[in-house]
Amino acid sequence: MTVVVSHLSNPEGQHALATAIAEARSRGTRLVVVAPAPKAGAGRDAALDELDARLEQVGVEHEITEVAGDLAEGLVLTAARTDAELIVIGLRRRSPVGKLILGAGAQRILLEAPCPVLAVKS
User: Which intervals hold domain UspA (predicted)?
Assistant: First the structure.
């Protein structure tokens, strides 16, 4: 069983990552981080190397998976492949009117996820 989270450098992504780390530790399970694959010809993102070192330092068993294409689809497929018990996603704060509309990626994850989804806002 795993906890799955996407790797985004924005505040929502960082908050989701911190929550996912805490969830993985409290559940005693592995953390799988899904990151966008680099563009053709580009090497691995240095931020992923830093993330790998950070997760090693805090003692979380983990895997970093890079996916090409749609990140929401990659997150759902990774959750299914790893028999995830939880997906953690970050949401940004919205205006009162904007609260009626959820982002397309978040909506797809919520509707297609093979396990519970924890949505955290920063």
Answer: 7-121
